[in-house]
Amino acid sequence: MNADADPTDGATVLVVDDTPDNLALMSELLRDRYRVKIANHGEKALAIAAAEPHPDLVLLDVMMPGIDGHEVCRRLKADAATRDVPVIFLTAKSDVADETRGLSLGAVDYITKPISPPIVMARVRTHLRLKASADFLRDKAAYLEAEVARRSEELAAIQDVTILAMASLAETRDSDTGNHIRRTQHYVRALAEALREHPRCRELRAPGFIATLFKSAPLHDIGKIGIPDRILLKPGKFTPEEFEVMKAHPALGRDAIEQAEAQLGTPVAFLSTAKDIAYCHQEKWDGSGYPQGLRGEAIPLSARLMALADVYDALISRRVYKDGMPHEQATAIIAGGAGTHFDPDVVEAFLRIQPEFQAIARRFADDDAALARKRAWMETVSPPDLTPLGVDRGR
After folding, report:
1. Do the beta carbons of residue 238 and residue 247 sit within 8 Å?
2. Exposed site from 67, 128, 185, 366, fewest CB < 10 Å?
3. What HEC string does 177-234 produce?
4. Domains plus CATH for the chain?
């Protein structure tokens, strides 16, 4: 191995000078170690520099006809393709003001004529090494940035799949089909976008909050996984005793999410929002809801949005035991609940964007096959159960 070998050997150096003798001198000096390109005026220099592959360094005369060296340097530094190519001015102008101007334009060095060949070679080698190091760091930074983005996307995808899997697990035990998750998720986002500029909804303008709402919404009924089949799958009206059991699902959902947070050991924004939605989406604006009987703005905004989305979807959607209600009828019920069941501002936003709700419902409509599968499953896991609540059935 040659001890004199240098990693910059073979680099491309562009020499720009309008004097043929100077071009010949510099080419003779550099050609044993570097690939040399020459230009005898500024326009040609810019054309060569812009072409692929770009030079690794430019040796640039200042005084040239047409576009002078200062203007060439300025244009090189203004072009994203060539701004990182080091420029060394090689000129007979030796005033401090000239050197200062050259460096202010972005040049890395300033060599005055007549040149000293060892000095020129040393400075060319130094700046090529610096460029190689800078290129390596830029490439490494770009690679790391791309890798972080890739892993972040992968983590987000895993997170999203986990959320949907958890939510789907709860819904496999319910009369809902899986598309209920997707519809309510999109309803909530549509309402949030419609209320973004409302003075009482400033939190919707926080960076990423609406995306967090969208991600959290599928977990609103995760607590239903803890409700017995004979209650959860009952097609008729609950008895007061059954309803008391059903009312436990918000707390069960909150507790499940809290346990997940505890396992992580660190707060996660979407889990915090998911807790609010799971625990409070059955609260009502007038305080008649459950589990806490919260009233008005004491109910988290995320839960107030979910309350309307959940009720609307329950009204319009087909179930194994009922047909869906027409949109107009469901809208009238929602409007009638403003100020009692629902936040009046959320209802007002819903009424403004009704067509968007209808489009979401059509886009994620349940098909007959899904309903048939759900009906068949319910018949196998939920036979008539007349056992009184509280009696131990030996399970």
Report:
1. no
2. 67
3. CCHHHHHHHHHHHHHHHHHCCCHHHHHHHCCCHHHHHHHHHHHCCHHHHHCCHHHHCC
4. 12-143 (3.40.50.2300), 172-381 (1.10.3210.10)
Dihedral sign computed on CA atoms, order 190, 194, 197, 201: negative
Please tell me the distance from the alpha carbon of residue 179 to that of residue 363, in angstroms, as a whole number: 10
For 145-186, the pLDDT digits (tens) are 888 888 877 766 666 666 666 666 666 655 555 688 899 999
User: For every residue of 321-333, which 3-state class applies, written as one string?
Assistant: CECCCCHHHHHHH
Q: What is the DSSP string of 112-171?
A: ESSP-HHHHHHHHHHHHHHHHHHHHHHHHHHHHHHHHHHHHHHHHHHHHHHHHHHHHHHH
What is the pTM (predicted TM-score) of this model?
Answer: 0.60
Name the burial class of residue 383, with classes exposed (0-12), middle (13-18) and buried (19+) by CB atoms within 10 angstroms of its CB: exposed
